Amino acid sequence: MISSTLRITLCIAVICYFILILYYLKKRMLELKYTLIWLFAGLVMGIMIFFPELLVHFVRLLGIESNMNGLYVLCFAFIIAILMTLTSIVSRQTMKIKILIQELSMMEKRIRELESDKKEQQEKQDKV
Fold first, then answer.
1. Alpha carbon of 104 to those of 69, 108, 112: distances in Å?
2. Cα–Cα distance measured from residue 107 to residue 92, given in angstroms and rounded to the nearest whole number
3. pLDDT of amino acid 65
4. Mean pLDDT in the chain?
5. How far is the C-alpha of 28 from the C-alpha of 112, rounded, in Å?
6. Are the CB atoms for 75 and 27 separated by under 8 Å?
7. How far is 119 from 127, CA to CA, in rounded Å?
8. pLDDT in tens, 14-39
9. Which of 39, 54, 120, 127 has the lowest tally of Cβ within 10 angstroms?
10. DSSP 14-61
11. Distance of alpha carbon 9 from alpha carbon 52, whole angstroms
12. What is the chain's Cα-based Rg?
């Protein structure tokens, strides 16, 4: 179904994909928990290269007529999954930032209050 030249090219592309992900992981440009979805996508790509008949079975299971349309649906599903994961990460980070800003504001207010109390006490001592 897939020519050997195309299979070799795709294998090289998937290997480069994994090398890039591992490079980012090593340089700490990505955290492990965030790279899991990318690693899973690469694993599925690798499986599809070596077992292209799985795509045919998947396409028939969904009732899609063309294998290319099935591949398009599969790619679209992975893109949606990755976008949902990234949106979830951004939402959690936004909530953490909001909480940190609130805590920082409360600490700054407390510091100002303590400084003003200290000034008042110093002024009282100076008068005495």
1. 52, 6, 12
2. 23
3. 86
4. 89
5. 38
6. no
7. 12
8. 999 999 999 998 998 888 877 888 88
9. 127
10. HHHHHHHHHHHHHTTSS-HHHHHHHHHHHHHHHHHHH-THHHHHHHHH
11. 15
12. 28
